[in-house]
Amino acid sequence: MSLAVSAVAQSPAPKPPVDPLHAWVGMASPADLENWVNYHLAEEKKAVAEVLAVKGTRTVENTLKPYDRALFHINIAGNQDYLMFGLHDHKDVRDKAQELLQAISAAGTELNLNQEVYHALAAVDTGKADPATKYYLERTLLEYRLAGVDKDAATREKVRQLSDKMTEQSLHFARTVQDDVRKVVAKDASELDGLPADYLAKHKPAADGTITLTTDQPDMMPVMTYAKSPKLREAMYLAYNNRAYPTNKAVMMDLLKTRQEMATTLGFKTWADMATADMMIGSAANLRTFLKEVDDASRPSAKKEFALLEAFVKEKDPSALPLKASDSSYWGEQYRRAKYDFDSQSVRPYFPYPEVEKGVLATAGKLFHIEFRPSKAPIWNPTVTAYDIYDQGKLAGRIYLDMHPREGKDKWFSESGVIPGSGSQIPEAALLCNFPGPENGDPGLLQYSDVVTFFHEFGHMMHEVLGGHGKWAGTAGVSTERDFVEAPSQMLEEFFEDTGILQSFAKNYKTGEVLPTATIEKMVLAGRFARGSWVQSQLRYSELSLAVHDRAPEQVDLDALNKKTFVEHTPYLFLDDSHMYASFTHLTGYSSNYYTYVLDKVIAVDLFSAFDPKDLLGGPAAMKYRRTVLEPGGSKPANELIKDFLGRPQSMDALKKWIALGLPKE
Fold this sequence. Notes:
Layout: H1 3-10, H2 30-52, H3 60-87, H4 91-112, H5 115-122, H6 131-147, H7 153-179, E1 183-186, H8 197-202, E2 211-214, H9 217-226, H10 230-241, H11 247-265, H12 271-275, H13 284-316, H14 328-340, H15 353-368, E3 371-374, E4 385-391, E5 394-402, E6 414-419, E7 428-432, H16 448-466, H17 486-493, H18 499-503, H19 517-528, H20 531-547, H21 558-569, H22 586-589, H23 596-608, H24 620-630, H25 638-646, H26 653-660
Parallel strand pairs: 5-7
Antiparallel strand pairs: 1-2, 3-4, 4-5, 6-7
Helix pairs in contact: 2-3, 2-4, 3-4, 4-7, 7-11, 9-14, 13-20, 14-19, 15-16, 16-17, 17-23, 20-21, 23-26, 24-25
């Protein structure tokens, strides 16, 4: 038994929390959070002890069931402590949450390296078990072997130490990004020329005439899209892409060394080989083949798209050439205005945040045949909204929406599980986003791309909730192969090209006018432009993530790889003082497997092709999709989920058609 386990066993039993299912309820101090987490870690150990106490024949009921309960307690502790790490208002609570995340990770590692538990699970008789239970056990045993459970004691102890170290390094990386909000100062209002009126109203000049902006999303994105000043765009681009630099360069290199040591300790050549072993893609070699196929499918279109854009810029403002990395969003917007007669600013008044939220809920309700009702559940911040989900009149889940930026909060857009659902336990999930919000008379106007992002993240939450009604917590929700989890959310993005869906909620916040059909048609065509370039940009991130993990760390030059992958997939001039990798938190999350977004776009557009474009929400495909893809959660291999819905394996054909729609007609 390790020293860590002994310390936990000898510590006083934690007091029962005010609410064992919700960490923030009754939490008056960091000590309350610590007690809440320790309660669940103690319950996990009780469940493990129950597994090991079995005498005689091992069954699903006496072994797998308590093991699953142990996983439930680790998962709920990790989910909610991570929420407090990313969302709590008080720094001392965020600090405590960061500390506790390391303890939770250590507990998970201890379980994954427990040979007695592994042998107990391997001895379970599944002869009469249902297919979902058999798959759950098979995959659990695979994960145990990949974690090194079959290694000798010294190797297992080394794996435990390396795992703890990786957790600490990853949290350090994430916290540095979270806390590093940079400022860009415009010398006067003229530098903000081109930005929307509501943006200008929220950014008044100081006494000396200067205007201070931040790298938070509501400040950054409009500058990159609308600001006429190339100087301001470049300053914002560099500020945003240099967050957490140089600190995180050293942190990332240390993490890469630890990961490589972990991989070789477990018998793999590189971390990338290890990280893909239990994915849909199967291996790093398969991944490279896949990326080449996607490159071949998208590069010709991307070249045509940039040639069109470059010719347009040459005609409008030759001095802007050659285009820099900081110019892409602005000139893409200008091209769309000219060629599609669509100004993305013109539709922002139709997307005030409160109405978008209502629209997303209504769309999801119709699509999945569920109902959202305002919940009286306790929340962790007054700006959070909660909804109870009902399915045929029965409570089926709960969601929390934490949608606007505030000091100390995580700066990205993501979904998080809150409570894993299984049996009688309803699932709960949360969105962590940074959209503009209504305040002081400001309606909180979103861009069309924000609306699409909202539904993307909402798709994760629907997967979490609708997939949380099976038998096992360990297969609930998004517990599929990790490289499938983006497919359901990316599929939902496609719904917001539909005129009927958009007009159900897109109304001018001043006049009540419905977003005109003609405008939607232009918006959709404009939004499709440069799809090949978008795929190429995803390949850039995918190859950067792979390249830093598929070789020995001493062969990794982060700055060289950052530039190389940009130049290979992006025709814009690279800005040499840009260190994007320092704030690229997917390097700690997906690690080498950022390709997930590209793979799942292939799957997503293929899944969407099965829906009736004339009746997206009401046709038979909607419920079939819910039943065959979302509700099984992780109880089947993802390839089977796809085949169950489509009636065939996935194909690259739909992606090629999707990209082709982004090219203007001759």
